[in-house]
Amino acid sequence: MPSTLTRDISPPPRQRKRRKEAGAVPPPMLAAVGAGRTRIEQHLEYFKERLSKVCRPVEEGVPRILTEDWTRLYQRNEHEHGNHFVVHQHNHPVSGVHYDLRLQFSGTSSMSFAVPKGLPGNPNSKSLGRMAIETRVHNLWNHLIESASPRTGSLLIWDTGTYTVLPRKNSSNKPPSPQTTDDDLDTDLEDKSSRHVEVEPENEKLIDAFKSRYIRLRLNGVRLPKNYTITLRLPSANNVSKTRPVRGKGRRISKALSAPQSTDSETEDRDKEADPVNVQDIDTDSDEDAQTRLHNAYPGSTNSIGSVHQRAWFILLDRASSGFVQDTETGKWIRSGSGSGSGRAEGDGFAPFLVLGREVERSVVTGRLAREVEGDEGVEGFVGRTGWVGITR
């Protein structure tokens, strides 16, 4: 009797997986979603599911946010007045390592600055200034991306949270200067005209500050210390209304992106201390379509704020608002220890920190290094631009 007729019929044998199941379409790659080549509907659920599977354990003291807390943080800002921010560490194959600061200004869109050396963290640094270059307006869901590809390099979440826009300070003995950058050295009072807008949504404050070319910004993140506050200033010489036309594959950079002209001697000194950067070197957007270049916004986002591609801003650490006071004997900035949170010398300051790059810094969401992000995405043999050095003094 054939063996096929002698097997038991109870219980029935397990069937092999159907061909349809075996040939099921795998979920889209993270990098393809991030680049807009693959469209999905539920971005938060997609990134939450993907990133939760690649989390790494980290040592005690390494900044980290739980996946559920990260999810709720984003959900709380999925509306027209959300004030979400993210700082991405980006290792691009052409422009190399830099950091992208993205600030939500509407229900769908975020302005973006490329910061080549990362955010300032030392109140007594010899290089106080940082260059910050406006890039394209991004979709809000880009705040969730952590991925890698041979074409774009690695992108990991260096920090994330919410922002607060603080009132601009006015001098008590002279009218405010549009060139003012760092209010540390005076006894400025907060602009009285700003006190009546305490209930104004933070994103609207951001829009107003952006249009005034001066943003006093507190970032409430996972990695950044409590009360961390910076100022972003667009020098008048860099306030171009539109970018030069693109010719071929190269880009002509407006002369307005040269060193700023200022009547404020302190501001001039601080601008000169900003890290030198070739604006063209951090342009990662050479493959965009004409509509993206025309509107300075990626598909799905809206440039209603008037962002201009590659305008050069300057960032400074707002030392007084970050909790530091100047020692009268040494002239150095030290932690205040007041803990008052009153608007000047708030909090206790913080221990100076350095931005150290892809070999050291881990994602606050997954705990991964850049090379681990690349490995998880199947990117092999990636060689980025070398020579990046952080500011360590």
UniProtKB/TrEMBL annotation:
Region (Disordered): 1-26, 166-200, 240-287
Domain (DNA ligase D 3'-phosphoesterase) ranges: 88-230
Biased composition regions of type Basic residues, renumbered to the chain: 244-254
Ranges of biased composition (kind: Basic and acidic residues): 190-200
PANTHER family per record: DNA LIGASE D 3'-PHOSPHOESTERASE DOMAIN-CONTAINING PROTEIN, DNA LIGASE D, 3'-PHOSPHOESTERASE DOMAIN
Protein name: DNA ligase D 3'-phosphoesterase domain-containing protein
